[in-house]
């Protein structure tokens, strides 16, 4: 009788171990999937930028500095050896450069009315919104994962199996600055 109790107790412990491990795997995979969604949107933006730059070039020939900055940042994103943090930093810089590029439309009324520019600007705006949403989803998923690996009893399993804490994406100092509206 005592042998069956010991075997039953071991079976329950093994079942708890397997269930806990599988949950940790699920959470880790959700974090990776959330990052992949960010990557998809960044790729979309990466593909749209050359079309936007070519459209603007026709109207704003002397705005080479802004265009060169956008192209340079886009090319940096093409490097495959960047870690996630570096990739997000360059993307944040690119977001700022794109804002400067969109500001050119005020100086060039013909550009503002150009259908190609409007279409590309709308596509990029939608993409920027999707990137922001994907970043929120990623941070939410990382928060759930980190909570899971830090909570008892899964923290024991996480430590044994090497599940490490993930960093959330944060806004840069530039993004935290107040927007200056001047009339």
UniProtKB/TrEMBL annotation:
<comment type="similarity">
    <text>Belongs to the LemA family.</text>
</comment>
<dbReference type="InterPro" id="IPR007156">
    <property type="entry name" value="MamQ_LemA"/>
</dbReference>
<feature type="transmembrane region" description="Helical">
    <location>
        <begin position="6"/>
        <end position="25"/>
    </location>
</feature>
<keyword id="KW-0812">Transmembrane</keyword>
<dbReference type="Pfam" id="PF04011">
    <property type="entry name" value="LemA"/>
</dbReference>
<protein>
    <submittedName>
        <fullName>LemA protein</fullName>
    </submittedName>
</protein>
<dbReference type="InterPro" id="IPR023353">
    <property type="entry name" value="LemA-like_dom_sf"/>
</dbReference>
<keyword id="KW-1133">Transmembrane helix</keyword>
<keyword id="KW-0472">Membrane</keyword>
<dbReference type="GO" id="GO:0016020">
    <property type="term" value="C:membrane"/>
</dbReference>
